[in-house]
Design goal:
Strand content: 5-15%
Oligomer: single chain
Shape: elongated
Order of helices and strands: EEEHHHHHEEHHHEEEHHHHHHEE
Radius of gyration: 30 Å
CATH architecture of the largest domain: Orthogonal Bundle
Distance between the termini: 86 Å
Strand order of the largest sheet: 1-2-3
Helix content: 40-55%
Length: 389
C-alpha cells in the first residue's frame, strides 16, 4: 500500500530559472510539473489553486487547450471559419470584422483563458469615451463620441466569439456573460407593433412597397432574405402557398400558406413585375432582384406623418396578431420559421397594448359590490354566491 499524498500540489523554485514551478497530480494520479511564468510567490500559488480547481471540476484539459491560443489567433480563426458566408450573411461578416479589429487592438496578445469580465468592462468604458473617426482624403477627422449602440455591437460580437470558444472546449465559461454594459442603450431590438390604422400607410406607398407591406404583415416573410429575392415560380396562387428555397434558418426553408390578402398582394405584384423571373425586379437591371426598399419606406412614413420604424417590424406585427388571435406560442414559432422558440418572445408584442386593454377591465370596487352584481343562492354549505346572469 502506497503512502498517502500529504499535499495536492506545491510551489518550488528551480535553479535554472527565475520562475516558480508548480507540482500537482491529475485525477488519475499522474504527476504534473509546469511553470507558472511568474516570479511572484503569491501569483504562483494563485495559479496552482486555479489548476487544482480545474482538475477537481474535470475541466483541466479545456483550460490547457485555451492557454495555448491567444485572443488574436482565436479571433482570426473565428472570422475565417464561423463568420464568412454561407454561415453568416456578408453584412454580418463585415460587422464582425469591424468589431474584431477594435477588440484585437486590446486583447490580441492576451491568452484566451486570461480574458476576464473586468477587462471587458474596462474596454467598454474606454470605447465609450473614444471619438468617432472618419477617413478622408486628407486624413482622419474626429466627430463626437461613439454611440453606445456601436460599442454594444462589439460586445455582442465578443460574446458570440467566446460562446463558440466554449463550445469548442477552449474555455470553461464565457467571461462576457458576467459583463454589465456601462450605460443604458437605446435602439436595440425592440419591435414596433403596427396597428391597423398605422398600416394604412400603404396607401402612401408606391405599388410595389404596398404589396411588400401586405405580404409581410400576412405571412411574416423576412424582407431582404426571403421576399425580395423571391421568383415567380415559387408562388402557387392556385393552392395559396409560397415556397421559401433559402432562408436565415433551416426551419425557414419550407412551404408557407397564404391568406386571401396575401394572395391578392402576390397577384398584384406579379401583374406589375414584368416578364422577368423575379417577383421584385430591379429598376436598373430587370434581370436581377430589388436589393433594398429603405429609401421608399422612409419616404412613405414621412408622407404618412408616422415616426420612423423599421420595415422588419412588420414581421413582429405578424407574430403579435397571431398571438392575439389565440394561436399557441409553439405554433407561432413554427409560423415564424424560427430555429429557437425563445426568439418568439422578441417578436411578439402581445403585449403592451393588450395588457393595457386588460387593465381597463380592472374592477377597483370588487370588495364593495352590492346586490346588483351578486345574489345569494344557497347551493351548498361551501358555495352560496353566484354572479347574476
Amino acid at each position: 500500500m502506497g503512502r498517502p499524498i500529504k499535499y495536492d500540489g506545491r510551489i518550488v523554485r528551480r535553479k535554472e530559472t527565475r520562475f516558480w514551478w508548480m507540482y500537482y497530480r491529475e485525477r488519475d494520479g499522474t504527476r504534473r510539473r509546469e511553470s507558472t511564468f511568474t516570479e511572484d510567490w503569491n501569483e504562483a500559488n494563485k495559479k496552482l489553486r486555479e489548476r487544482l480547481q480545474a482538475r477537481d471540476g474535470n475541466i483541466l484539459q479545456i483550460v490547457r487547450k485555451g492557454e495555448s491560443i491567444t485572443f488574436g489567433e482565436w479571433a482570426d480563426l473565428f472570422l475565417e471559419s464561423y463568420s464568412k458566408p454561407p454561415i453568416r450573411e456578408p453584412k454580418t461578416h463585415v460587422a464582425n470584422l469591424r468589431a474584431a479589429n477594435h477588440l484585437k487592438k486590446v486583447f490580441a496578445t492576451r491568452r484566451l483563458v486570461n480574458v476576464t469580465a473586468d477587462e471587458i468592462e474596462h474596454y467598454l468604458r474606454n470605447r465609450l469615451c473614444q471619438p468617432v473617426s472618419f477617413k478622408t482624403s486628407s486624413g482622419y477627422i474626429e466627430r463626437g463620441k461613439l454611440k453606445p449602440t456601436t460599442v454594444h455591437q462589439e460586445l455582442r460580437v465578443l460574446r458570440r466569439m467566446l460562446n463558440v470558444a466554449v463550445r469548442k472546449k477552449l474555455l470553461a465559461s464565457n467571461p462576457s456573460a458576467n459583463v454589465e454594459f456601462p450605460v443604458a442603450v437605446k435602439g436595440l431590438f425592440r419591435p414596433h407593433y403596427v396597428s391597423w390604422s398605422e398600416q394604412q400607410i400603404e396607401f402612401h406607398a408606391p405599388s410595389h412597397l404596398r404589396n411588400v407591406v401586405r405580404i409581410i404583415t400576412e405571412t411574416g416573410l423576412r424582407v431582404y432574405k426571403e421576399l425580395l429575392p423571391m421568383k415567380k415560380e415559387h408562388v402557387d396562387l392556385l393552392n395559396c402557398v409560397v415556397w421559401i428555397p433559402d432562408s436565415k434558418t433551416l426551419n425557414g426553408i419550407s412551404e408557407l400558406p397564404l391568406t386571401k390578402l396575401a394572395v391578392e398582394a402576390f397577384r398584384n405584384q406579379i401583374a406589375i413585375s414584368g416578364n422577368g423571373d423575379f417577383l421584385f425586379p430591379s429598376d436598373e437591371t430587370p434581370s436581377k432582384h430589388l436589393k433594398s426598399v429603405k429609401t421608399a419606406w422612409r419616404n412613405t412614413l414621412r408622407r404618412a406623418g408616422i415616426p420612423y420604424f423599421r420595415i422588419y417590424d412588420l414581421r413582429s406585427t405578424y407574430a403579435t396578431r397571431l398571438s392575439a388571435g389565440g394561436v399557441a406560442d409553439e405554433w407561432v414559432t413554427q409560423m415564424l420559421r424560427q430555429g429557437d422558440s425563445q426568439v418568439f418572445k422578441k417578436y411578439s408584442q402581445m403585449k403592451l397594448q393588450m395588457k393595457r386593454e386588460a387593465l381597463e377591465k380592472l374592477n377597483r370596487q370588487a370588495n364593495e359590490m352590492n346586490g346588483t352584481l351578486c345574489q345569494n343562492v344557497p347551493l351548498s354549505k361551501d358555495f352560496d354566491t353566484v354572479l347574476t346572469q
